[in-house]
Each structure stands twice: as structure tokens, then as C-alpha cells.
Amino acid sequence: MLNTIKSSIGVVGLAVMGANIARNFASKEYKTSVYNRTFARTQELVNEFPDHLDGFEELKDFVESLELPRKIIVMVKSGQPVDELIIELLKYVDQDDIIIDCGNSYWKDTQRRQEQLKHKVHFIGCGVSGGSLGALHGPSIMPGGEKHVVDQLLPYLRHVVAKDFLLNPCVSNIGEGAAGHFVKMVHNGIEYALMQSIAEIYNILRSNKYSNEHMRIVFSKLNQGNLQSYLLDITEDILESKIENGDYLLDLVLDKAESKGTGGWTVISAIELGVSIPSLSSALFARYANSQDHITTMIHPIYENLSSQDNLDSTIDEFSKILELNFFASYIQGFELIQKASDEYSWKVDIHEVLRVWEGGCIIRSQMISTLQSYIKLNKTLQIDFLTKYAQYIPKIRHFISQTRVSMATTNASLDYILTFLAPRLPTNLIQAQRDYFGEHTYVRIDSGDTVTGGWNKSKG
Fold first, then answer.
1. Tens digits of residue pLDDT in 347-372
2. How many CB atoms lie within 10 A of CB 66?
3. Which of 224, 245, 337, 391 is the most exposed place for a label (fewest CB within 10 A)?
4. pTM for this one?
């Protein structure tokens, strides 16, 4: 390009998300350089904002078009494509330049790249949530890495993100190391659980022959107060969407939900860190449990003959309680996982800032997030107030579930999770006793605090 004015920022990878991020920067009058492996895609995008976008066919020219220190946003597919691009960029960047991976990269890959790139270039793992429209109009952005490097990016990012409940930018220095991608991964794990809990209510309504319009009305009533959320907003839109002949589009969608890995990574990370996330885990496994096409026609009559005693004319309150408990349990499990990782890896994540950044732009935004700010403060009285509230929901929800024939995987997991908070003692003492009985794995005596083994009557073993 002949234009000699350097660009403030560069974007590599112009699929939907990358193109919309570039459009976002350009709409805020940032001079932005763009590069895509296919130059025709670059030219097409530049034609939309010729005054603020510069496109390049060669990566070298793209890098040289950026002001120093260079800030390069990477929006390519996670995994090997990121590594391959970094190898190419290293030919042209300087040590003070910043590569910002804004894709859904696995946090351990980010951790590895940060270590490998020390003294070569600054590398930031950055979570971005909001989907394609969020990228264009204002996403939630979660950068993590060296503080002084992230701080250099914040003035640019603040102009392209959504606003929180107090109209502050939904971006923050999330923490050190791979915190940015870890927090985004957990965000997606929570997203799985919220979506599954909404789908379980939908399944009850559909099982009871509710029309799509009637279901939309139900979800509209639920989409209020603490439950007012982006996911319920789009559920209303989906339920009223029709095709040309008047049929509902949702009824034509195959019951097979895919995933891109972040839900599984969340569960694996929880296992590695020893954190209980039953709501998030159940939602992941529910996605794997697609219809068994080869036997559905044979077992369908069995399902139809199962008793179902739902009195749906009076269950808006029950549905509201189910969703609120699921939302609460899912968020809290995510926070526990983030906090454990932050402590384990010394990332210095501020959960309050994570919550604030999730108030706008991101997929899991909801009014409940504002109330959770008080829960996560180290105030046991406030936490007991929350748990008392949800404990009062449990008998009605249990009764309701017992009368429906549909699967309620995440709802049951959330109920059990809350009950673990409430129980004076858990039955894991028996499990540890069994482990010691057959394997001499030891146990801790309550009366003395000593770690011991044996003492069992082994007449059966």
C-alpha cells in the first residue's frame, strides 16, 4: 500500500469474527491493517471502510504497516494454525511487539506459547465473547498476560467493547499468564450449563404439546428480574422464527448439538484442579447424548407411556425457580474453578472484575451477575442468605421433577450441588473408609485429627 500513515492495530484472520473485529475498530476510526491468507477476502473487507482499513497481500507488508510497538490481533482457528502463524510473524516482528491471540485457544497452549516466546515477542491470550454480532458492535474482552503489556492494549480495547451495568467498558486486565483464555474457557463451560437448563424447560413444554408461540410467551415471562439474559432473549427470537411456508424453523433443526472443545477443556481442567462442577459437566455430557436414531422408532412408545403429571398452567413460578437455581449453581461453579486456577498458577485473577466484564457483550450476560457480586465477597452472612433462598426452592423443584418424564440432567446436578453446601456431613467418610479397607489408603480421625489406617472388621474381605 502507498499510504504511509501507520495503523494503530492489525488483525490477522478475516473469517466472521476477525472481519467483525476489524470492522469494529474501523468504525471507531482506528486505522487498522488487515491480512488474510486469501487476499480476495482482504480486498472485500477493505472496500467497506477504505478510509480506515488497509489490506495487505503479504504478511511482511502487513507487519511493517503497524505503528510501534506493533499490536497484532490473531483471529485464526485454535491449535496448529496459531503456531504456524506465530512462526511466520516472528520473521518480521520486534521484541517489544504484541501478538494477541483472540481465538478460543486452549489455555495450556497459551501458557506454552508465552514461555516459548519469552525474549522474542510479547504474547497475550485474550478471550472474546459475544459471537459475530458482539465482535462487530461490542464484545466482552478478557486479556491475560504480563500486566504492563495488557495495560498497553486496554486504551484501544476500551473503545470497541460493550458496556457494563454502570456503562464502563467490558474489558479488564484479567490476570497474569494464561488467565485470559482460562477465564474465557470457563465462560463457555457456564454457557453450556445455562443453555442446557433453558433447553430442559423447553423440553418439558414441548413434551406437553405446547405450541412454539405458547412456549415463547412462557420464556418471555421467565426473562425478567435476575433471569433477564441474552440467552433467554435469543430463545424468544428462535421460538418465533418461521420459514416461508409458515413452519417453525426450530422444529426443522436436528436434535444434535455440537461443541468446539471449550466445554470439554473446562471439565478436564476441573478434574485436574479437583473442583466440583456438576452442572457444567452434565451440560457437556447432555450434548453428547444425541438421539439414538437406530432404536428411536422402537423405543418411542415406551417413552410415550411414561407417566407425566405436569400441571403446566401453574408452573411459571417453578420454571423460574429451576432456571434461577441453575444459573446460580453454574456461575458459582465457574467462579470456584477460576479462583482455584488463579491460586494454583499465581494468576492474580480478580473475580469481581471477571463478573463486571461479563455484565455486557458476552453470551452469558444476565441480571443475576450483578447480585452475585455480593455473594462472592468474603462475607459468610451474605453467602448464607443466598443458600437459604435456594434451599427453599429445592422441595418444590424436586417434586416437580418427579412428575415429569423428560431428562433434567443439569437441573438435577445443580440441585445436588446446592445440597452439598447444606449437608452437615457428606457420605465421603464411607468412601474413604472403603479405600482404606481394601487399599490401606489411610483416613483422618475426627476425634484426634491423626492420619491412620486400619481398625476395620475384615470378616468380608
1. 999 999 999 999 999 999 999 998 89
2. 22
3. 245
4. 0.91
Q: How many whole angstroms separate alpha carbon 116 and alpha carbon 153?
A: 21
DSSP H/E element including 79:
none
Q: What is the pLDDT of residue 31?
A: 93
Within a domain: 1: no
Helix (H, G, I), strand (E, B) or coil at 62: helix
Q: What is the mean predicted confidence (pLDDT) over 171-176?
A: 96
Going edge to edge, which strands form the sheet with 53-56? 53-56, 32-35, 9-12, 71-74, 98-101, 122-129, 140-144
Residue entry with cell 439414538: 292
pLDDT at 461: 59
Q: Which three cell numbers, joined as nine digits, stand for 401?
A: 421433577
How far CA 179 is from CA of 98, 175, 301, 341, 344, in Å, comes to 17, 5, 49, 8, 11
> Measured between alpha carbons, how far is 187 from 335 in angstroms, rounded to an integer?
9
Sign of the four-CA dihedral 428, 430, 432, 435: negative
Asked whether the beta carbons of 338 and 183 are under 8 A apart, the reply is yes
Domain holding 37, by residue range, is 9-181
Catalytic entry in 31, 71, 176, 184: 184
The secondary structure element, H or E, covering residue 110 is: helix 107-116
Name residue 236's amino acid. E
Q: Could you tell me if residue 334 is inside a domain?
A: yes
**191 is annotated as an active-site residue:** yes
Percent of the chain with pLDDT over 90: 75
Would you say residue 312 has pLDDT above 60?
no
The per-residue pLDDT for range 91-147, each reduced to its tens digit, is 999 999 999 999 999 999 999 999 999 999 999 999 999 988 888 899 999 999 999
Are 63 and 143 in a shared domain? yes
Phi, psi angle pair for 97, to nearest 5°? -70, 165
Task: Give tens-digit pLDDT for 427-457.
Answer: 999 999 999 999 999 999 999 999 999 999 8
Sequence-distant contacts of 450-456: CB under 8 A, at least 24 apart: none
Q: How far apart are CA 109 and CA 306, in angstroms?
A: 47
Task: Specify whether 184 is catalytic.
Answer: yes
Query: Pick the catalytic residue: 191, 318, 324, 336?
Result: 191
Of 139, 165, 181, the domain-final residue: 181
